[in-house]
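Holo model, zinc ion. Inputs:
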Amino acid sequence: MALDDVLAYLHAHRQTHVDQLCDLLRIPSISSQSDHAPDVRRAAEFCANELRELGLAVEIIEGDGLPLVFAQTAPRPDRPTLLMYGHYDVQPVDPLDLWTTAPFEPRIENDILYARGSTDDKGQFYAHFKALEAYVRTGTDLPVNLKFILEGEEECGGHHVYRFTEQNAEKLACDAIVVSDTALYNETTPGICYSLKGLAYMEIRVSGPAQDLHSGSYGGTVQNPANALAEIIAQLKDANGRCTVPGFYDDVLDLDADERAGFAKLGYTDDILRSETGAPAAYGEAGYTTLERMWARPTCDVNGITSGYGGQGAKTIIPARAMAKVSMRLVPNQDPDGIAAAFCDHVRKLAPAGVTVEVENLHNANPVLVPRHSPMMQAGIRALRAGFGAEPVFIREGGSIPIVGTFQACLKAPVLLLGYGLSTDNAHSPNEKFHLANYWNGARTSALLFHEAAGG
Ligand code: BES
Ligand code: ZN
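Output:
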């Protein structure tokens, strides 16, 4: 049977496919650092070349920002079309000293591949390439039309792919959008994800005296920007761990009984959380379980805070400025723009007298919810079940993939969030990794999805 040939090809070429992924991982395509722009471009070209060799019509689309890669198989009207999304840019690598080996020199140990971008997202979308390769090289009829849209600005909040999607809905038209940039439930259980969090990312800047002051000469006579910022931040959450921004919870879609029962059945314990994170205890909004907080409740967190002296020993000053970055992870149906505006008002009201406070909304992402019981979901579940050899469970994600909401709105096609990574793969952290078993099973799953999406 033809599908067996495809799967046998994937099995036989496992090592080659790892070597090829390593070539892509050697490219330091860090999108937020402009000195790496040529590397981001090289990663785009790497992907474009490979898709071209597989016979697709490929375009590298230049525009405002870093390039997009768009590719498609020769369209055949009798087949459904899948739009495969991925991002070939990666996060910065600092703190470099915490990496066991260099982030762009892939290393394999115990069947785990270590490199920046291995799970987020090069390894995941490259699994789709290998699945397609298996059809092409075995001469197996591909039961779907495939389109690829790959971007290089996912990690830096760029706008190229949004504008392109809004202006090219026709070109991207499809029967389903497949996104592999999330996680399995755990090492032994694949998950089918049906919700992503949204985001409102804020910066608070507090300024006081014209420059740092001697804290003996002037301490106690002027407001201290660091103290003022701490006061503001301390009031962003109440004693129950709830965000105090007025109206914050108004549009939150509550979990239904089915979802709560499904989460509970997964058996995720606070011991697991402690061992995954190294945190001494679980914490969060009162009245919800850890999984409910992680996947379905909005959050408000400081991501970075700077002020004054942080060097060795003591230095006695009243700092002139203080700054914090705050993210609010949002859930369906919260509106990031409305929440960001409410946050700005709230922080200005919390600001104590004697300092100047500026609040800026740096970027937003819409939350995503997809129906759990569509035919495309069923196809995804069958593909995951056969690809990983285990029964998939429904999961949600605490992370965001900003373009997905725009795809839903502009392309009006169902979204399939088919993740091959693990939450513990150290995405955005030192020693990012990707389990080879998940790479290989991911490629199998993609190959099976092409079959299942066409009706099996
Ligand atoms: N792959 C992640 C999204 C993700 C994160 C999925 C965690 C599952 C769990 C993606 O590359 C990412 O990091 N997104 C950013 C978006 C932000 C910069 C707007 C995120 O969630 O922080
Ligand atoms: Zn990421």
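The CA atoms of residues 83 and 177 lie 5 Å apart. The mean pLDDT is 97.
Archived with the compound record.
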